[in-house]
Specification:
The complex is a heterodimer of chains A (262) and B (265). By secondary structure, chain A is an all-alpha fold. Chain A has one domain. Chain A is built from 10 helices and 2 strands. In chain A, helix 7 runs parallel beside helix 10. Chain A is globular and about 55 Å long. Chain B is mainly α. Chain B has one domain. Classes of the chains: A mainly alpha (262), B mainly alpha (265). The interface between A and B is large, with 41 and 36 residues.
């Protein structure tokens, strides 16, 4: 563990150096991240413009869900996103070899190689949006609820990480499908909508989208002080099972990796 | 004939990269289908009409949107800006004995047709699986006018994306303007909600902008929601915007090409 933190510190400082060396790119990423962050809230405002509720989810709950999702995505984008975005190209060009040969677990190393501090802006926008929603709709928040929702948000990030690992690992077999990451970006839309919206789907499809729908929906209840033991247990179980399965899937895929020169 | 051959060459490349095409098509399908799930739940929980649209009309709109996105929206801006202008790929086009514009137009058309057909296939499976009904236009004249509207919509979207790509002649960083344009397109072309659902003022603005004529109105046309007069009005607006974009395109090309420098031996 000590070695992991040492390596992480070195990589983090390296990423910060890159950030300060390319200030133009930093500003550009900051603007585009902020614009997309704001856009995601505009989308929800438009979608809920004519809507009062969806079953048990009120308009405020849906907007709050999106605020929390903004924080989750902001943190995920900061620590993991760039690594997953880069992964299909590493496989396609045979550059994964250099990670596999290093004296550290390749999955861990690939996950921490890039840190995109600039994406924290998205999490910040999420905080601002939640603040705005709470004031606008006069929602009272308890500190206990906020504190309880923090570990649940971390669980949600873990679950989201495992979904990304599952899908990007597929590129080891389908190395030309380098645009598969775009597909996952598109799937973010599922997390914006309350899980109840998907209960019209058949069972198989519902089970497929379920992990994504609970990533941000579970913390919302806790945040509002509505403790839902069933939802919490579901998120915990699904997160750990998915993390374990994605690890097994990754190890299985590595056996098929041939590198560019093979 | 020459451009038809160019189209076939590009189509060959598209088929070669079919796994990428499938992913892009799925991408275009996902968001409308997610929004459709959302609206299905909204309608079923509220049980009333929204913005004058019934549940079946909304369902039909999003299903058609998922395919129309693949057919109509060109994705040429990034390759024009990055591969051709920043990386100098434009050099190989300017010395060829055919137009850069038409080469890209037919090249992109091959991607659109292929991805659109995959989209129709997937939509067909979804429609059968979930027994979803899509309302279509039925009279021959209406069908013909809708077809013309689709052709014009593709041309409009293509010209807009070319102009966006040409901004790279002047800008050192293209991504910022691309992101902003993408967001505007998503909102005002009806990718998020049917424009009828927007607040009145935003809706009125969106009807004046070109984006509604790239996707929203062609979908309404194929649904049969537009009368002949309205459809003629849509075609008129499409031609007007194409004319405007063609002038901007010509101006940007003439000025931009003077700034372009291709480095090589």
């Amino acid at each position: 563990m000590k070695r992991f933190f040492r390596v992480y510190k070195i990589l983090f400082l390296m990423n910060l150096s890159v950030l300060t060396a390319h200030r133009g790119a930093f500003i550009n990423h900051l603007i585009s991240g902020t614009v997309w962050g704001i856009f995601s809230f505009i989308v929800m405002i438009l979608l809920t413009y004519n809507v009062r509720s969806i079953y048990s989810w009120s308009k405020q709950d849906i907007l709050l869900l999106n605020g929390i999702l903004g924080i989750i995505l902001g943190l995920f984008n900061t620590f993991f996103q760039a690594n997953f975005d880069n992964f299909p190209n590493l496989v396609n060009k045979g550059k994964l070899d250099s990670f596999l040969l290093k004296p550290m677990d390749a999955q861990v190393l690939l996950g921490i190689w890039h840190t995109k501090v600039v994406s924290l802006s998205r999490a910040l926008i999420g905080f601002i949006f939640i603040f705005y929603i709470c004031i606008h709709y006069q929602i009272s928040i308890s500190w206990t609820g906020v504190l309880l929702s923090i570990p649940v948000v971390i669980l949600g990030i873990g679950l989201y990480y495992s979904i990304w690992l599952f899908v990007t690992t597929l590129t080891i077999w389908f190395d030309r499908a380098t645009n598969i990451v775009e597909l996952l970006h598109s799937l973010q839309g599922i997390m914006r909508i309350p899980p109840v919206a998907f209960r019209e789907l058949n069972l198989v499809l519902f089970l497929v989208v379920l992990p994504l729908t609970i990533v941000a929906a579970t913390p919302v209840g806790l945040f509002l002080g509505r403790f839902d033991f069933g939802g919490l247990a579901l998120l915990t179980t699904v997160s750990f099972v998915c993390l374990l399965l994605s690890r097994k899937f990754w190890l299985l895929a590595l056996r098929s990796y041939t590198s560019a020169s093979s | 004939m020459r451009y038809f051959r160019i189209f076939l060459i590009h189509l060959h490349r598209v088929i070669e990269n079919r796994s990428r095409s499938i992913v892009w098509t799925l991408l275009a399908l996902f968001n409308p289908l997610i929004y459709l799930c959302y609206w299905l739940a909204v309608y079923k929980s509220s049980g009333s009409m929204i913005g004058g649209w019934s549940l079946s009309e909304v369902t039909s709109y999003y299903l058609l949107l998922s395919v129309a996105g693949s057919f109509l929206i060109a994705h040429i801006d990034e390759s024009v800006a990055i591969e051709d202008i920043y990386e100098g790929g434009l050099v190989k086009y300017v010395i060829r004995p055919f137009s850069y514009f038409w080469d890209l137009f037919f090249g992109e058309l091959s991607w659109r047709i292929f991805q659109g057909l995959i989209g129709i296939g997937i939509l067909f499976i979804i429609g059968i699986s979930f027994q979803l009904l899509i309302s279509f236009v039925s009279s021959p004249l209406h069908i013909f006018m809708t077809f013309i509207s689709f052709l014009l919509a593709y041309t409009l979207s293509f010209l807009f994306k070319m102009i966006l790509g040409f901004s790279a002649f002047w800008l050192t960083e293209f991504r910022g303007i691309q992101s902003s344009a993408e967001i505007i397109l998503l909102i005002f072309a009806g990718f998020i909600v049917p424009l009828q659902f927007l607040p009145t003022q935003i809706k009125e603005i969106s009807f004046l902008l070109p984006f509604a004529y790239m996707v929203y109105f062609p979908i309404l046309a194929i649904q049969g929601r537009l009368e002949y007069v309205e459809l003629l009005g849509v075609l008129g607006m499409q031609i007007l915007w194409i004319g405007f974009f063609a002038c901007v395109y010509r101006l940007m090309w003439n000025r931009g090409i003077k700034l372009f420098t291709g480095v090589g031996q």
